[in-house]
């Protein structure tokens, strides 16, 4: 649609052309001035402006729908589902859906903003003189006035449909990132508080893979144990042994200083978590004369004759003790799980 097709009464007043300066010997590089301003169809026809407004609103609405589709795809599509996309080939359906929907959501916002700026915002050329960096009150007042003028020329106040859909699109798009936080991994729930140990579960020697009898543990010896039924071939072996690994030490009952430790032991046989409470290293060094165990990573030292309390190093708390007993066949067994989480402290400890 050209200006010749618009009724003359709808045409804006003619804008004066800024003529350039004439070059002379003193000013060989003259300011050429600005070319005559050419009005767009939307500037002279409100119906065309309305069509552009609806187009921008449609793009923003498309962005909102794409964001909703992104969230729906994340919830509904299985993470292991595959689809065939020509000519790319087989793709993970969830990744493909998330990529497409998020791409459409972002593209639609960008395209809507560009279309808005090119068709509805003012495109009048403005020349401004250079000025000093430090602004005086008059300049600041001019900046504020220019900002208000720019806001007015953006028509955001008058084009309510654009404003509403734009705010809706910009409000929904960040939800895509929030939803992705759920994909960082399974929720921990209370798994950090529990291990495979439970009442009646036998203590199995890590070296022989045989259940331990009380008679197998000599005074001054150090034995490592795991829960009955946990095998190295199991898929979750590393995760479970990292919480359930035990140190078995036999101490003369008269040498045990902590009352609860003595009650939770069997004839001086005590069972403590092997996982250091500093950063989770496996403890493996035992000094039978002092009953101290040492973490080889950062030298945290625990007194197994006094509730495995920390006597040196950066560890923050004592090693958790496992209450043990003996079954009818003479095998050592757990009488429950650890009373507190094993390993390094975490935010829900206690």
TrEMBL record:
<feature type="region of interest" description="Disordered">
    <location>
        <begin position="1"/>
        <end position="37"/>
    </location>
</feature>
<keyword id="KW-0472">Membrane</keyword>
<feature type="transmembrane region" description="Helical">
    <location>
        <begin position="97"/>
        <end position="117"/>
    </location>
</feature>
<dbReference type="Pfam" id="PF19297">
    <property type="entry name" value="QcrA_N"/>
</dbReference>
<feature type="domain" description="Rieske">
    <location>
        <begin position="238"/>
        <end position="333"/>
    </location>
</feature>
<keyword id="KW-0479">Metal-binding</keyword>
<keyword id="KW-0411">Iron-sulfur</keyword>
<protein>
    <recommendedName>
        <fullName>Cytochrome bc1 complex Rieske iron-sulfur subunit</fullName>
    </recommendedName>
</protein>
<keyword id="KW-0560">Oxidoreductase</keyword>
<feature type="transmembrane region" description="Helical">
    <location>
        <begin position="56"/>
        <end position="77"/>
    </location>
</feature>
<comment type="similarity">
    <text>Belongs to the Rieske iron-sulfur protein family.</text>
</comment>
<feature type="compositionally biased region" description="Basic and acidic residues">
    <location>
        <begin position="16"/>
        <end position="28"/>
    </location>
</feature>
<keyword id="KW-1133">Transmembrane helix</keyword>
<dbReference type="InterPro" id="IPR017941">
    <property type="entry name" value="Rieske_2Fe-2S"/>
</dbReference>
<dbReference type="InterPro" id="IPR014349">
    <property type="entry name" value="Rieske_Fe-S_prot"/>
</dbReference>
<keyword id="KW-0249">Electron transport</keyword>
<keyword id="KW-0812">Transmembrane</keyword>
<keyword id="KW-0679">Respiratory chain</keyword>
<comment type="function">
    <text>Iron-sulfur subunit of the cytochrome bc1 complex, an essential component of the respiratory electron transport chain required for ATP synthesis. The bc1 complex catalyzes the oxidation of menaquinol and the reduction of cytochrome c in the respiratory chain. The bc1 complex operates through a Q-cycle mechanism that couples electron transfer to generation of the proton gradient that drives ATP synthesis.</text>
</comment>
<dbReference type="Pfam" id="PF00355">
    <property type="entry name" value="Rieske"/>
</dbReference>
<keyword id="KW-0408">Iron</keyword>
<dbReference type="InterPro" id="IPR045603">
    <property type="entry name" value="QcrA_N"/>
</dbReference>
<keyword id="KW-0813">Transport</keyword>
<dbReference type="InterPro" id="IPR036922">
    <property type="entry name" value="Rieske_2Fe-2S_sf"/>
</dbReference>
<keyword id="KW-1015">Disulfide bond</keyword>
<keyword id="KW-1003">Cell membrane</keyword>
<keyword id="KW-0001">2Fe-2S</keyword>
